Amino acid sequence: MSTSIAVVIPTLNEERVLSRTLLSLRQLRFDEVVLVDGGSRDQTVSIAQGQLPGLGLHSAKMLVAEQGRASQMNAGARDTRSDVLLFLHADTLLPPETRTEIERVLENPKYVGGRFDVRFEDDRGWAWLISRLINWRSRWSGIATGDQALFVRRSAFDDLGGFADVPLMEDIELTRRLKRMGSFAALRATVTTSFRRWQRQGTLRTILQMWLLRFLYWMGVPPKMLQHWYGTIR
Question: What tens digit of pLDDT does each residue of 150-162 get?
Fold first, then answer.
């Protein structure tokens, strides 16, 4: 019996990237896709309404939830029935072997979930270096970020109560708790994501800000306080 997989996509003003991401899902044989919008003011909702029915899936729908990636992803998870939840950013493309890789890992009951390696679309210079550092840090620490397409057994996700209701670092916080429940897989298969947020305020400045935020988080500074530092990078 195959494992059922639901893809949950939180969105907020993603008109530039969403269409391509949705089209890429048509060939990946997922059981459910739920897009959860947090109040987009561009054409995100129209794009979703136009493309979701054409994915050819058993269930493909759009919801509206309170703005905030954690609350949006929790709302999407509650609306699905699949065995596995895959949380995907709207600017990220999954590899063709996604389903096979997830099923392979979760055949082993010791794994509660996992993540993929990441690369940026323009995989040169800073983009090349940053993606390698992200993957190395994640493999070394066992902690992952949302850019890496987190997947988790529904049973584990429900036992943990989903993502914590925090304004940022919800991905890191979830993977820290998952590690206490079982093993968390670091797959070599690679997702491809946009480099846009790193370039928006300057690559070096963004790198330093990200490192500072994560350092402060590890030192115990509450996410709500860190939100004031985060600005519009997210």
Answer: 999 999 999 999 9
